[in-house]
Design a protein that fits this description.
Oligomer: heterodimer
Structural class of chain A: mainly alpha
Shape of chain B: globular
CATH architecture of one domain in chain B: Up-down Bundle
Helix content of chain A: over 70%
CATH architecture of chain A: Up-down Bundle
Distance between the termini of chain A: 56 Å
Structural class of chain B: mainly alpha
Number of helices of chain A: 9
Shape of chain A: elongated
Largest sheet of chain A: none
Radius of gyration of chain B: 24 Å
Number of strands of chain B: 2
CATH superfamily of chain A: Cytochrome c oxidase, subunit III, four-helix bundle
Distance between the termini of chain B: 7 Å
Largest interface: A-B, 36 and 43 residues
CATH topology of one domain in chain B: Cytochrome C Oxidase, Chain A
CATH superfamily of one domain in chain B: Cytochrome c oxidase-like, subunit I domain
CATH class of one domain in chain B: Mainly Alpha
Chain lengths: 279, 592
Amino acid sequence: MAANLKGPVAHHFNNLNQQLTTVRMGMWMFLVTEVLFFGGAFCAYTAYRVWFTSDFEAGSAALNVGIASVNTFLLLTSSLTITLGIRAAYAGNPKGLRNYLLATIILGVAFLGLKGREYQLDYQEGLIPNVSVLTPEAQKVVNERIAKDPGKADEKVYPFNENLAVVLHHEKFKGEPFVAYDPFRVQLFFMFYYSMTGLHVLHMIIGLGLLTWQYILACRGFFDYNARYVYIEAMSLYWHFVDMAWMFLLPLLYLAGPHSASQALEQFKVAIGLASGTH
Amino acid sequence: MTTANSIGTDTPMAIPKLDYTPQMSPEPELTPTEQREKPNYLNWQYGLLSWVLTVDHKRIGLMYLVSVSIFFMFGAIAAGLVRTNLIMPTGAILELDQYNKAFTAHGTIMLFLFLIPVIPGVLGNFLVPMMVGAKDMAFPKLNLMSYYVWAAGALFFVWQLTVGGLDTGWTLYPPYSSKYSHTNVLYAGLGIFITGFSSILTAINIIATVHKMRCPGMTWGRLPLFVWAMYATSVIQILATPVLAVTVVMLAVEKIFGVGIYDPTIGGDPILFQHMFWFYSHPAVYIMILPGMGVINEVLTCFSRKNIFGYKAVAWSSVGIAVVGFLVWGHHMFLAGQGYFLGQVFALLTMLVAVPSAIKVFNWTATLYGGSITFQAPMIFAIGFIILFTIGGVTGLFLGSMGTDIHLHDTYFVIAHFHYTMVGGMMFAWQAGLHFWWPKMTGKMYSDFWSRLAAVVMLVGFALTFLPQFVAGYMGMPRRYPNYPPEFQIYNVLSTAAAYLQGIGFAMPAFYLIGSLFFGKPAGNNPFRATGLEWQTSSPPGPHNFESLPQVYFGPYEYSVPDGLKILNDGSTNGVHSNGSANTDKGAAHGS
């Protein structure tokens, strides 16, 4: 960065340049570990994705690709705003920095809000393995089946499997005959879905906490020493990483199964209450 | 690195006769009052808060030292229980489930709470900044946080072991850790997860320190080999540990939601767990041994008064081990169903990882050749390391070859092999390092006699404990079983008896090292007359390590420089590494 940076040098550094490059390097090292952390989960996911191809596609089809699409837009935009914030900072515009930080926080919170709504819809659809109970629709299906063949009354009912069947045979898939799937393998897909997006959400929450802290610091004049912008740079590296992780999660989880643009739009309308869900 | 010999031929100067005998106190003695009043990292601040909130790498190193020593004691007690139980073919003192818990406690505590943090935590923290000429680690607060994260995880883990125990073996293989475990694997796994996080933070700190905090003149080619080893270790830690973390997370998800990721009884794949676990845990054995190898370089050169043979080869072999170590995990799974072809590939790659280890052993041997060797305690430990590690390494090749491994897999041969590398290797290296740098850490010299005796007792006790296990294992005694056929009893009794002797040996330093704090003679700045940068400052070092920014003119092991001692003695008075102007041109020649 520019040579006219000013700021206090911590006691154990010899000069400012050493301090700044060390901060950047520390964050890059941390991101290396993060890549390996998510990488391990991606690796396990990929192994099962290869073994259980059609089942994972069925699981993916049951996800809410509408919310995911909008979230992708929000998150990518937030990466842009934080970069613009750093640009504003180094151009000597602290007000611009504050505004862009605020924009980043708002976009991140919007992402989390929609993500929470998505989890809520998943819960309503009864798609949490070994936790969900039968939804009313699924209960109806089970009752009809037992009415048709009373011999099946003693069979063990797996709520997730019944709920999944309801979701996947919903009218939105009419005209698109679906591949055969094993619901127990789809349960595994959902485990990966919840744990991987859960880890991502956890990273987002930590990142938003740090961003909020930096916003407060920016308002209090902590960044009057322009050398301290390096902390926002480090923060932005982390934020871009969270973004990148999502860019891998989106195709692995949401785009693995058959979806259509109209379906995604419909799902998003349901999510924000513009259209009513059919179940 | 040019060796000193080329200098000798260039310079037509008479080589003075050197006094190679290590001296206990070459420095002018300070009066007790002067000694007390000279500010050092131990006495410049007082009070509990100045310790628990310190960001000084040296104090954090001492905090690690106390903690890991306590956990080592726990692990050793568990080992004592296991060995005592094995005196009788049907088990002497423990119930079957107690036996499972005892050997699991021994394995997990020794690995996660002792071997992995011990040298990076204690010696790495204390020495890496001093060896590169820095005032502190790159991220001092992160360093303190790393200690507390580790301590929290470790205490939580030990608490879990004491309230419920863990009966899975340290490998946590499903379905032992899922369907068939009667203990709380979830919380124990959480403890491991937390300590792993600390290991990552320490590694980030060390890498950043080595890259960014080196003092003027401290080029990569002049770094002490201990720093190279710590660097390679840290690279493994940041690359491997997150994979263990996510593996444990998925184990927890499986436990909580009951959907099989790893557990075959509910549809998961146990081989997947083994792949992910060993992707961490095989590199982790290099996390354990590489710092020890680094210590050996420092000790051997000092006590044979010679430059290291093949600096570059030793330095790059550390990096080589770090890289190739990531490619061999499958040799733990030859019999687990990973496939014949994959097994062949892993067997071949395993042979490859023996190469850098062998490079080190040959270079150490060549370093000893023609040296002026003295057998003080650190040197006895270091020689012990070379012998025991070589045995451990060569028996590792038996296990890395598929054909022999089919016979030896899961027998006591494996136990003996990794104890030769982990205890005979890392534990001896740790003792060598502790004894070598104890005078620097505390400013006090321990008893020469007792330290040598302890080293010999440990060596004899160790060898007699684990040699019989090679035989028993080769004859087919399986590991982890509480009961065994009576014909193996002789080996087990011998092994147990020697284990008690070894226990006495490991307990001895606790007495004479602590005793040295109160009764030991002042060590002086450089009692072993070593050349490393850390020896050029006072003992114990001042709060900021060096009184002025050091300037380095030549490599770390210039024991053969003709006027090396004079340079060192000049340098030690003003706390810098030989910055006498007369040496500048010579230093340039060395650096080229």
